[in-house]
Amino acid sequence: MDRSLLTRGLSIVAVVALAAVSAWPPSEQINLGLDLQGGMHLVLQVETEDAVNAETENALDTFERELEGLDLQATLRQTGPRTFQASNLPQDRLGEIRDEIIEPYLPGWNETTSGGTISFSMQSAEETNIRQLAVNQARQTIRNRIDAFGVSEPIIHDEGLGSERIVVQLPGVDDPERVKELIKSTAFLELRLTVQGTGAAPSQQAALDSIPSSVDGEVFVEEIRDDNKRKIGEQWWAVESRRVITGRDLRTASPRTGEFNEPVVGFTLTREGGRKFAEVTEANIGRGLAIVLDDKIMSVANIQERIRDQGVIHGDFSLEEVNDLVTVLRSGALPAGLTILEERTVGPSLGRDSIEKGEVAGLIGGGLVILLMLGVYRLTGVNAVLALSLNIVLVFGALAAFNATLTLPGIAGIVLTIGMAVDANVLIFERIREERRAGRTVKSAISAGFAKALSSILDANFTTLIAAMFLFMFGTGPIRGFAVTLSVGIFASVFTAVFISRWLFDLIYNRKGRVDEMSI
After folding, report:
1. Are 277 and 288 in contact (CB under 8 A)?
2. If residue 45 lies in a helix (H) or strand (E), which one and from where to where?
3. Which of 107, 227, 307, 496 could form a disulfide with 387 if both were Cys (CB 3.0 to 4.6 A apart)?
4. Residue 99 backbone dihedrals phi, psi, to 5 degrees
5. Segment 45-53 mean pLDDT
6. How far apart are CA 276 and CA 269, in angstroms?
7. Is residue 262 classed as helix, strand or coil in its secondary structure?
8. Cβ–Cβ < 8 Å for 85, 119
9. Burial level of 183, CB count in 10 A (0-12/13-18/19+)?
10. Cα separation of 22 and 425, whole Å?
11. Would you call 80 helix, strand, or coil by DSSP?
């Protein structure tokens, strides 16, 4: 056998064998999408404006804190989501303020000075960075929560480059409402002192009226539940606006059992959080301490002694609610709110039905293609059928090797790949026919047919590949699944039609002497 023919043959065998090993058995090696195995699909919009507004609040707080360090005071107010203003500043110390505070602590802000007033506005590059960081942090937080929830092989990614949307695919989920609540929950934890001399009030207005004019305070509601955890009423508490500690001071959280064997959430603070907590509790023995979670009072306890770095959250929780709250607290708070733009839930029975119909479609499509190739091109059609079979093996092997997910549109992409693979063979065979009619010998016609069809094959597949790339970049969920399968199929089609099919022709005809006829 010709050395080149042997080398090419061994290369083909190696590639096909590698693909077959990667894809076998398909039931274990090929990941199925939600539409094939059932589960939940969500498209979430990250409200990045929340993150921008929060960063403005942080910058204002930083400026105020550093002013105090310089023994200065000013009138501060936030004038917009990305602007704030400091007035009544001593003009003779503006240079010092710029050198000691603005340049080191507010590098992402533009400032304009008018008299004793400095107006701050967030730089556009800083705003873009904050929005992207919010999306990245939200994606990671969601992933942490889903991983803790125990979903097998979740798919969580941005919808596209620079997008503020996150796609979440959760196979096998059977409690979608609980998952949605777990994902969207902000779980912003705060511990605040109750306003001195006040207690639970029956209404929001009564709680507001109880706050002295000299105290900066807010009011929050606490739900009253019966022994069956059903809400039977509510009461309002007046608390100081100053936060003793927040969820940012949290080191860890865990489910525990309370004094009366009820489910509670235990938490441990960081070293700095524990120091602050100890100072405040030591100075306020006898005062009420409210645990506020997402702007709701979970419980209010009297401070009996100095507390260092541990505490418990009571709230008439069920065991499931405690576990979910622990998951959210441990995974961190979301940097911005989330809005569900798209939601789909697929049952496992519908997924099995989709697989069966996809298999039927593939078998019917493949069978018709085989009959057509054998009917039109006779024995030469066997070459196309063999190349087509190897094409399917390569597609499944690549999907398994790259850990890609097969969806229902992905099955459609495989069926389309069958047609595209045959299309390349048709171009080659028709060129060979033309060369034979022009009087060329069999070997010469085969060589010329492949050479003249190559440019058309590459053009057709390259333009389709570009379309698949755009579908992957800007599509979501099943559309991206279709794009992945189609892209893999394109490379497999070109490889089988141009490389394997040519090798088969050379294997059959190059070993013979002069050949005058071929069945085409």
Report:
1. no
2. strand 39-46
3. 496
4. -75, -40
5. 85
6. 10
7. coil
8. yes
9. buried
10. 26
11. strand
Q: Token pair 């050379």 is at which residue?
A: 506
d(CA 486, CA 479): 11
User: Span 419-429, mean pLDDT?
Assistant: 79
255, β-bridge pairs: 265
Cα separations (Å) of 496 from 35, 126, 211, 499, 503?
30, 50, 79, 6, 10
- CB of 133 closer than 8 Å to CB of 94: no
Over the stretch 375-399, which tens digit does the pLDDT of each residue have? 877 777 777 788 778 888 888 888 7
Tokens of 268: 């441990």
Segment 296-304 long-range contacts (CB within 8 Å, at least 24 positions apart):
296/220, 296/221, 296/222, 296/223, 297/220, 297/221, 297/222, 297/237, 298/222, 299/222, 300/194, 300/200, 300/222, 300/237
Average pLDDT, the chain: 80
Q: Cβ–Cβ contacts within 10 Å for residue 283, how many? A: 11
Distances (CA, A) of 360 to 73, 388, 423: 77, 17, 22
**Burial category of 273 from C-beta neighbours within 10 Å (exposed 0-12, middle 13-18, buried 19 and up):** buried
DSSP H or E run through 39: strand 39-46
| Cβ contact 442:516 at 8 Å | yes
